[in-house]
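Predict the 3D structure for this chain.
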Amino acid sequence: MTKHPHETDVAFIQALAELLNKNDLTELAVMREYGENDSLEVRVVKQAPVAAAAPVYAAAPAPAALAAPAAAPAPAEDPARHPGAVASPMVGTVYLAAEPGATPFVAVGDAVKEGQTLLIVEAMKTMNHIPAPKSGTVKRILVEDGSAVEYGAPLMIVE
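Done. Predicted structure below.
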């Protein structure tokens, strides 16, 4: 584990993610040595786009909404551009509950308060609680429990 400032490691990981995307790679692993007993191992893996890789959990539309194609939202809508999107602050593995089999932190339709834990992203064996950036209602959960996420990937929508 590194003894260097967290911001330096985050910037390094972000640069690796950008390098992965820029060079159309699917995986990149790096070991950065700072000195004796002081290193950082990073593995960045690119997954399929979130919309294709994981099902979107949302309330089912009313039958009338299904019959009216003009009322349906555009299928190419990018959840990452949604103003209520909660993005992953790091590369890691998403967990929707504190432990396997436990009740998820939130579900679609739940009211959340700013700072409330929405989910966990495990990165380098550290469990990072991801808080709600604002109070609102969980409209969509865009990831599956145990799935890999990239830096900046949308995790859920809170409006």
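The longest strand covers residues 27-35.
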